[in-house]
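[step 3/7] fold_predict: job queued, chain A
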Amino acid sequence: MKKQLKIVELFLKSSHFYSGIRLSFAVVAPLVILNFLGLFEYAPSIVIGAFLNAPGDIPGSLKRKVNAILISIGLTMLITTVILFLKPFTLILVGVIAVISFCTSLISIYGFRASLVSLSGLLSMVLAFAIQKETATEIGEHVVLMGVGGLWYLVVSYVFLKLAPNKDGNQLLSETLHLLGEYLKLRARLLTKKSDRENLMQQSISLQTKITEKQETLRELLLLERKRTGRSHYDEKQLLIFISTINIVELIEAKHLDYSEIDSLFENRKDYLKASKRLNKTMGNHLITLSECLIQKEKIPSKDSLLEALQKAYEAISVYVDAITLPKAREGALVLRNLYDYQEQLLQEIRAIRRVMANVNNASKVSIKRQDGRQFLTLQEYRLNVITQNFSLNSTLFRHALRFTVAILFAHILGTLLGIHNTYWILLTIVVIMRPNYGLTKERSKNRIIGTLIGAVIAIGIVLVTHNVIVYSVLAILSLTMAIALLQQNYKSGAALITINIVLVYSLINPDAFLVIQYRVIDTIIGASIAVIANYALWPSWEVFNMKQVLLNSLQRNKEYLIATKALYHDKKNNDLMYKVARKEAFLAISNLNAAFQRMTQDPKSKQLEYPLIYDMVTLNQTMVSGIASIGTFITNHKTTPVSKEFEVLILNIENSLQASISILNNSKYNEIKPSASISNAEEKLLEGYQLLSKLRDQDINEGNSEIDTETLHRLQEAYLISNQLIWMKTLSENLKKATFKYDAVLKENL
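[step 4/7] structure written:
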């Protein structure tokens, strides 16, 4: 019961619920005020304007938010005017619907916020069919009032933002910390769950994608907006927490363990991994608790459990060495030691978050320069040539625009010919659920239908129990608030609540609520069916063919990340910024690759060509990022020895392999840069360096010097890490080149 109450409390304090309240206020206030003033006939148009222009109001830069809503107001007014004037001219109207549907949906090319502006425009086209305005005066009055409603919503949004300026930032940070906590717990299971490892790896891909999406929004919110307005003390705190989440992601990525090696070393000794596993779980649970504290504003928990788990992980290394004995235990001990060091660094970042949340004085300082911070932002290109570049059947969004246009036209003509009541509900369903990806459209269709049926059943229950207008009004407001709050989190629940809201609103106008419910269910099923069939049959965008560009981008970013890491090894001070920017781009690229792969798994099995091959390529790219991150993290956090010639030779070899993969996908020629020495000799010398340090350490042990000083330990760790990681990454890059060649051949064969 206590857990359920906490879930409710977190929801009621969330920015999602706050968004529901904001939109409900923007919609209800004009109804109440204008009714009180005796001007209620103007209220519906204003409410429609407020509702239509709300989608663009998402977390991020205030300037971008205002621009999006203003553009949305202009677009919805224009589209509504055109549709209302051309309603009597059936044939012309069909052509105009096609033009509006295609052009408006193509706006999505300019990114996520633009896609929401596009949604507003498409919704205005559909709702215009429900509006009964015939004369030019009536149409003009309605459109002007819609614009007033849009501006009213913009004012409401700004006021709500000023009342709770940190709400969105806290929510995003909370969700990021929660996802990181879940990710750490999943990594703990990966250590020992050999039989379930592939399924866990799939889950980790999904979690990584979600974390990166949250961090991208946070970058805009915390870097772009604060760059213009300056940072308050609370902004500094949010930025410090965000930076720690970035560091945690890199540390997690850096420790992409060779599970086959762990299975080999600890096959019958998994008890020695329990302490490390428990530490990961403890840190994961602690991050989840901190995420809740951000929302609830509660006192942060004690760090004792963290320190105790860390101490036990450290002691487990000695227990292992004592039980197995050196030198036989050396490789296993180094694996445990490297794992411990990584977890200790994770714990430092978690403690940094704790200090910020606890308001510890001088816990840390933010040292990001404004010009440097801009380099970490992913800026959207808004020039006209973005559309011209996508004006081809090779573009996923262009094909979606064509597909969507045909679906809308078909639904409109079908509804007109069959005399379907409220045809615009069918159109509305298509607008809301149809996406460029077949799998997502199918999933949203299923959830929409189930949610509508659930909402219809609940609405029937309400209508049977009471006919009280006040009850209907209160429940309509509550259902709207909850629907908006849940729509992004749980689409099925959101759809159910929207259905309840629509039925209750119609019940206030029309006493025959059961007829409304019947039409609502039937029209939703028809609209969802048209959307799914269109996605499957009309210029289908199967993800297997869209993967090429995403893979290419990931390979290019991996290469740049590798080069930046090499530069960091040479000079930390002057190359730190370049390294961090390259790291951000590589992580974003691998997240996009993971997301594309997830979409591919939602496509029909028959359309998932060479699934094992693509899965291998995604895994190889992911592992390559982790390998580079492990070297970069070690360099960042340790004093390192001078860069060896062998390091340069192997890095160049990996660069060559990555560039070869890029050239295969680009269909371009590539001239390989020859290394200055033999690859095999470089490998041997790197391994010899580690073996020499190991022998010297063995001599110390034989002479009774069992304790190891920090400098020797770090040199041993560096030699082990660099030699093993580079040889491993060399193999990865070669396997990636082979897989890329096979993938390119499959594409050419099937296109």
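[step 5/7] annotate
The chain has three domains: 167-374, 394-540, 543-750.
Confidence is low (pLDDT under 50) at residues 366-377.
exit 0
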